[in-house]
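Title: Prediction job returns without error message
Component: structure pipeline
Severity: low
Priority: P3
Assignee: unassigned

Description:
Job completed but the reporter wants confirmation the result is attached to the right record. Sequence as submitted:
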Amino acid sequence: MTGLRSRPNRRPYLLACIGTDWEANLPEHFIRHYLDLEIRPQNFVIALHSDKRDFLEATLKIFRGYGIEPRRIWRGPFNPVRMGTLKKEMQREFIPRGDWVVHADLDEFHEYPAPLTEYLEDRERSGENVVVSCFIDGDRTYKLRFGSTSESGRYVKPPPAPETVQWPSWPRDEKLLLALT
């Protein structure tokens, strides 16, 4: 077996690009939540994004206080394409092949039916390498998907999500269901 328990140094990674200008009150809650899920500080693969130096410095101080060193600092206007590219680059550079990757935004606090490493071990024993779930943001429910990299280093993309919108008031040009890659 090549699961998480058989390789004691193997633990899931957290991959995130965090905007520091708008959500200054959340970093400490975010960090504590994922540390409580047993994601090690060295397995936080984080990029911080900011237009304002003051907020960036304050957020850096919070992360460093928990022994977490952001892997990238991104200054300038937000661009979703740039963010996606940055996350893919960090995953290739910092996350070993075959390891699990949890994708979360700063305001997303995942919960699992068992401790995370135990839950992922169960998925591996079942032959799964992708977890598909839902999360609630306000009054809307979204698909949440994360997966692992294959032994070849390629990201194992989750199965396609249905392109249905549950709420007619949601703008038609928005993509409600996205693969978190």
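Comment from assignee: result matches the submitted record. Helices lie at 27-36, 53-65, 80-94, 116-125.
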